[in-house]
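QA checklist item 7 of 12: single-chain prediction sanity check.
[x] sequence parsed
[x] length recorded as 368
[x] structure emitted
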Amino acid sequence: MGLFNEKKVTGVIAGREVTISSGRLARQANGSVEVRCGDTVLLATAVMSKSPREGIDFFPLMIDFNEKMYASGRIPGGFFKRETRPSNWATLTARLIDRPLRPSFPEGFHHDVQVAITTLSCDPTVSLEGLSIVAASAALAVSDIPFNGPVGAVTVGCLDGQLVVNPTVADLDRSTLNIVVAGTKDAILMVEAAALEVSEELISDAIALGHQAIKETIALQVQLAEAVAKPKAEVSFTKPSEALVARVSEYLSDTIETKMRTGNKQEIDAFLSQLEKDTMTALAGDDADLAKEIKPVFAKLKKDKIRQTIIKQKLRPDGRALDEIRQIEGDVGLLPSAHGSALFTRGETQSLSVVTLGTLWMSRSKMV
């Protein structure tokens, strides 16, 4: 067995060997794994608080992606030879990991959970986005934390008209498609994509191809979880009573569905805000504790009713049909003193961009 009683599984994903092991590092965490692909080594740890956080109606999940310069054999430059705050890419990668994981936890689970992914060794040919999601999911799968996973992920590119699963970083630079697909063995949970005017058919084929590879990463995680065989912890879940849900549902009736047929976005927003107040007054009165119980029930029923209205009536809350995009406008030269300015408007969203050129003196100085 050895000192660490390490469990390890290995498989070939998209032509590259991937190894997931548990039991050697971070043994005090609820769950931890090492994921190896080429010369890339990721350490993923998952920890959970002993008790749920009181007074919240959301799942307190925190995802950290930690880049380390030593992983590529480098020392941070500048005066301070220390690791600094996470880069923009690390922050975006953490958010990318969060998206498919967050909906994979049981409803009403309010324990604090932190998942940290750290690069111990970096292979410049290996794309980290999909591998990091697999590492995070595997750490949760082998832990005692309640988790409705595992979740798998891969990156799909298009090289010379051919779809490729988990292309190298160099290949992604010349790929006309860069899409990260994450999901379970039964469904897709997240798609993050950048593309150069590719067809809808190619996107659909890329998602389907990615899902096949996702199943292979999930099979590895299931195999490791079975080898570790760590039972899930007994925790309490915060769920409203069925009677309360029925009361709120009966009070709302079909008012939301009816309003969405006639109102515009501003009217519907005002209507929903007032409806929440009316519901609290009618069902809770001056009972503050009951109002706290009703609020998340109202929010969930509101979301479900709006979603069903969109699906059945083919109408969005702002009045647009499912195949209708927002009006898009672009203007330039708004600011007379700036060297350049532009206003981009899409529906009610606006972005004002301003550019200023440096002086000729600045171009000759050491400032640039």
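[x] summary fact logged: The domain at 7-228 is CATH 3.30.230.70 (Ribosomal Protein S5; domain 2).
[ ] second reviewer sign-off
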